[in-house]
Write a structure and sequence with these properties.
The chain is mainly α and 201 residues long. The chain is built from 9 helices and no strands.
Length: 201
């Protein structure tokens, strides 16, 4: 079977964006986001500032894209955890949240982000300005839920996905119990809704 090749312009664009994100990740680990300019990122990536602005219209737009790019890695892990438990929806929800919290807690860039004092850092792009992140993560998780449990009404699948996303962000930015304990309590809280949405009462 012939593999589908990614068109060159699309592949080149993805590579360029990855280069920018990689440069930004390196810079953020050296100094605060509030001290990093678009010129700094472009220079670290080995391109002109104009090239960076052509791809991202503003510094805030770049920051939002960077946060979503980082989130891709976590959503990959969450997606895999859910798919491993398609036979048990409650277990799937618990595994998804536990995986997300543990992975995020071990990530050095997330620790830097959470150490932000809110003065021009990246944290607002997850919290007060985080709607694009919430919408993106909700859409992806909704697709996974619909794939595993097609009997779930679309509105309820989306509600479950958005609830999980918002809970995950809340627990990451203001951690309390261990990932295991948080996942267990969340599964208990959402369990009845999951059973009702899937007609498993």
């Amino acid at each position: 079977m012939n593999s589908v090749r990614t068109p060159y312009p699309k592949a080149a664009k993805a590579l360029l964006r990855d280069t920018f994100f990689g440069a930004a990740r390196d810079l953020v680990q050296q100094r605060a986001w509030s001290e990093i300019t678009m010129s700094d990122i472009a220079s670290a990536a080995g391109v002109s500032r104009q090239t960076l602005y052509k791809e991202f219209g503003s510094r805030d737009e770049f920051a939002q894209a960077l946060v979503i790019s980082e989130g891709e890695r976590f959503l990959d892990a969450v997606d895999a955890a859910v798919r491993e438990h398609f036979d048990d929806p409650r277990a799937a929800v618990g595994a998804a949240l536990e995986t997300f919290l543990r992975t995020a807690g071990e990530d050095p860039l997330v620790r830097i982000l959470l150490g932000d004092d809110g003065a021009g850092g990246l944290l607002p792009f997850v919290t007060t300005q985080g709607m694009p992140v919430v919408q993106w993560a909700t859409a992806r998780l909704t697709a996974t839920i619909e794939d595993g449990w097609p009997e779930a009404p679309p509105a309820k699948a989306r509600l479950l996905a958005e609830s999980l996303v918002r809970l995950a962000i809340s627990h990451v930015t203001a951690p309390g119990e261990s990932p295991e304990a948080t996942a267990a309590s969340t599964g208990e809280l959402l369990g009845p809704f999951i059973d009702e949405a899937l007609g498993r009462k």
